[in-house]
Design brief:
This protein is mostly helical. It is built from 14 helices and no strands.
């Protein structure tokens, strides 16, 4: 049976009819052209030109120098540490994000608004401040410092501290992508599955996960991009030990301060390349997510 759609301003066009989006404003054409030109000029000056400059400076002395700058022991160690940190932080945030989004979107409980506020905390706190929090907790003069020293456990100036700082600054991304998506979908399908005898895990795997998979991937992509590019919090807890606790952003800073311009831009180009790959994947996932949301909002017609 065909879906009945009440005519109105938000009515979806029937199949076969061209969809004409109403004009947002009635401004003359020259105003629209001017605004678009200003936007493109801004993007060119502050995005495209710096991006091209990064690759140009990195390759200025030739491909051999570029490759040597990347495979240099300290730079290679920074690359491996960055990938290791992201490989640990992103799955942890994925688990937390799904659990937090599930609890907030599917249940009503006391403290729900407090949990939402805490999830947004890394967005409002400077990354440097978050790094100082870990120094206060795990430093030699911190709350747990004496106990850690007695048991020969190293958090600061080591991989655990870098991972903890990265997890803190990135944990909102997955949760914040899933919460509105789960809230818009409601809980009727999960309730129906439970009534039919499905277990909680089976319901999540066969009902919830297929509905949120694109939003989940979108959040993971953003989380991974921030994890690899984080500077402030990691700079505080890393100790800047060359070849041991420097991530890619910290290695770029060291090379630039040593006037190794080509090396700094060569290593920085890796982050730029990862950003471009992330943008391409993000765009594809956004398209699939919007397509999924449109399919949920506008029922198919026979």
């Amino acid at each position: 049976m065909s879906a009945v759609i009440t005519p109105g301003i938000n009515a979806a066009p029937s199949r076969g009819e061209p969809a004409h989006a109403p004009a947002a404003t009635l401004e003359p054409a020259w105003v629209r052209i001017l605004l678009i030109a200003i936007a493109f000029l801004f993007l060119t000056l502050f995005l495209f030109v710096p991006l091209v400059a990064v690759f140009y400076e990195g390759l200025k002395k030739g491909l051999d120098v570029y490759i040597d700058s990347i495979v240099e022991p300290d730079a290679w160690s920074a690359i491996k540490l960055t990938l290791l940190t992201a490989a640990i932080a992103v799955p942890l945030n994925l688990v937390f994000g799904v659990a937090a989004a599930w609890s907030i979107a599917k249940f009503e409980f006391r403290g729900k608004n407090i949990l939402l506020t805490l999830i947004d905390l890394p967005f409002s706190v400077s990354p440097v401040i978050s790094g100082l929090i870990y120094v206060l907790l795990f430093g030699l003069q911190g709350y747990f410092g004496p106990w850690l020293r007695e048991h020969d456990i190293k958090i600061l100036f080591a991989v655990p501290g870098i991972v903890l700082a990265t997890v803190f600054v990135t944990f909102p991304f997955v949760a914040r992508e899933l919460i509105p998506l789960m809230q818009s979908q409601g809980s009727e399908e999960e309730e129906a599955a439970l009534v039919l005898g499905a277990s909680g895990w089976k319901t999540f795997r066969h009902v919830t996960l297929p509905n949120i998979k694109w939003g989940l991937l979108y959040g993971v992509i953003l989380c991974n991009a921030r994890a690899m590019g984080e500077f402030g919090a990691v700079s505080v807890v890393s100790g800047h030990i060359r070849g041991e606790t420097n991530t890619i952003p910290l290695q770029v800073e060291i090379l630039y301060n040593e006037f190794n311009i080509v090396g700094a831009f060569a290593v920085a180009s890796l982050l730029a390349f990862l950003a471009l790959v992330t943008l391409a994947i993000k765009t594809f996932i956004e398209w699939r997510l919007h397509k999924q949301l449109a399919a949920n909002i506008v029922p198919d017609q026979e």
